[in-house]
Structures are given as C-alpha cells and as structure tokens.
Amino acid sequence: MRGAQLVGRWVESYTGMSADNIKGLLLALSSSLFIGASFIVKKKGLKKAGAAGVRAGVGGYSYLLEPLWWAGMITMIFGEIANFAAYAFAPAILVTPLGALSIIISAVLAHIMLREKLHIFGILGCILCVVGSTTIVLHAPPERQIESVAEVWDLATEPAFLLYAGIVLAAAFVLIFRFAPQYGQTYIMVYIGICSLVGSLSVMSVKALGIALKLTFSGMNQLVYPQTWVFSFVVVSCIVTQMNYLNKALDTFNTAVVSPIYYTMFTSLTILASVIMFKDWDRQNPTQIVTEMCGFVTILSGTFLLHKTKDMVDGLPPNLPIRLPKHEDEDGYAAEGIPLRSAADGIPLRSPRATDSFRSS
Q1: How many C-beta atoms lie closer than 10 Å to residue 161's C-beta?
Q2: pLDDT tens readout for residues 1-41
Q3: pLDDT at residue 182 tops 50
Q4: What is the chain's mean pLDDT, rounded?
Q5: How far is CA 263 from CA 100, 112, 150, 240, 325, in A?
Q6: Residue 349 and residue 84: Cα distance in Å, rounded?
Q7: Residue ranges with strand state E in 95-176
Q8: d(CA 100, CA 300)
Q9: How far apart are CA 327 and CA 356, in angstroms?
Q10: What is d(CA 15, CA 1) in angstroms, rounded to the nearest whole number?
C-alpha cells in the first residue's frame, strides 16, 4: 500500500495531475482500448456467422450463436464500465474528449486483423487525436472534491445550470415534436441535435451517479439519499432517448457523416454543461483553458480527417453520400466500423458506432 502511495505521489509531482485525475485518465484509456477492440472482435464474429448463416445486415441472428461475437460484446461491456467509473474520478472535460482514442485502436486493429487499408491521411488523423488528447490530459482541471451526492444536487440546482438544462430540454422537445416528424429524414442535424442535447445532461447525471457509488463503496452510503435515485432516473431516461434518435440517424444517414458530427456536438455540449455545473474552469487560468480548447480542436481535426479518408484508396477520392438507401449496409455486414465515444456505446454516452452495432444486430 505504501509503495502504491509513493508511486502515486511521484506521478502526481511529475505530471501535475491529481490522484483522482490519474485514476480517471487510466480508466478512460482502458475504456478506449476495450471499446476500440470490441468493434473489431464483433465484426469478425459477424463475418464468421454470416458465412455460415443469414447476415445480421439483412435481418439474421446467427451471430448470437457465435462465441467471437459474444467475446466482443463482453469486451465492450467492460469498456463501458470503465468509462462510467472514469466520470466518478475525473472531470468530464478530461474524460469525454478521450473517447476519440478508441478511433485509433479500432483503425489500427482493423488494419491488422481485418486487412482494412489505413490511408496515410488516416494515420495523420490518428496522430492528431493523440496530440490533442495529450494536450487536454496535461492541462485538465483537478476533480472537484465532493463529500456527498447532496453536494452534486446543490450544483445541479444552481440557477446557471437550471437555465442551461431548461434551454436544452426546451430545444430537445421542439426538435422531437416539431421538427423530427417533418424534417428528421431530410436534415441530419435534427436527430443528432436531439442526441447531443440530451447526451450532455446524461453525462452530468452519470457523473453524479458515479460519484454517489464511489462514495458508497468507500463507506459513505449515498443510496439513502433520494437525489441518487433521481439522478438514476435521469440517466435511464436520457440514454433511452439518445439510443432511439441515434438509431434513427444511423438508419437514415451515412455513418461516416453521422459519427464526426455527433462526436463534435456531443463533446462540445458536454464540456459546456460540465463547465457550468461543476465550474471546471474556475480552478484554471486563461492559458490552461485556451490550451484545452486547442487540444479539443486538434482532436476534432483528426476525427474528421480519419472519417473522411477511412474509405479512401490510393488515387481515388472517398464517396460518402450523406443519406443512405433504406436498410443498406456499406459492406453487407452489420456496421461495426470505427467507433467514437462520448461517454458511452452500448450506452451512447460514448459513440454512435456502439449504438449502430445494436441497431445492426
């Protein structure tokens, strides 16, 4: 125990990161590793099952009998658990953008295991994601010290965050009931807007629930507080809404177009919500804030570049129509390509690709 404490102090002194931020960082990195690997394993399972039966892309369920597909699913679940835990230790401004690292894991493994060619500009996109992520990690604010879920509730009920939540809910309801029925199948921003708006609230609730569970496991039972169950209800409601409209977006538009737009909007709104609710930037100077934003823009650049070139072969430009023919897969299999997290796949706090895997299956 003393040796672990010495190592933690050494890392903290040389990186300038708090112990909780280091724990959150390690959990977020492991989550990206598990999530990125899970899509490749699941796709191999889908291809193997499709060779012996009806493919998932045309309504088959033979993959449910394929052990390789289940191995990928279990790997993804471990990744989601790690992602959930990361929010309990580190601020969302650190955890959420790191979801882009799963792109690199998936792209590299797809190149090795699935023989999917990684274009030179795709490699550059991966490098940009790494540089941006490193910049954010080194300048992320320390996690706010919270002693009970009641403190989180007080932060969530302050006027500034109530105003933000009210605007988000009003905009989401207008999109859902006014624009989605008429324009959802035509304009990509309708469905993605709903997912991103609701997703920013879901991450704040996931973080609150994660803090409550962390404190409970440390001996301070937070399950007796009604606020814990309110946050749990919000988490479930938001995730169900996200999954519904993200599936609609993925069923209507090209995934290579949906993924980067969703990642950009979801991550931007999540950072904004975290700054308002947990006041992350109050503990930083302007130089650190600007540097974090530069890191985020660098990640966005790498993400768009990787998705723009992921279907490119040397000498031929990518052909990415925004709208997809109904129920048509890009490769004839369930869509299991490069994932993007935001907070969650399987749980859509992380990635449209994860939800896409559920849709395809």
Answers
A1: 18
A2: 454 455 455 455 545 677 888 888 999 999 999 988 887 88
A3: yes
A4: 79
A5: 8, 25, 31, 18, 23
A6: 9
A7: none
A8: 9
A9: 12
A10: 21
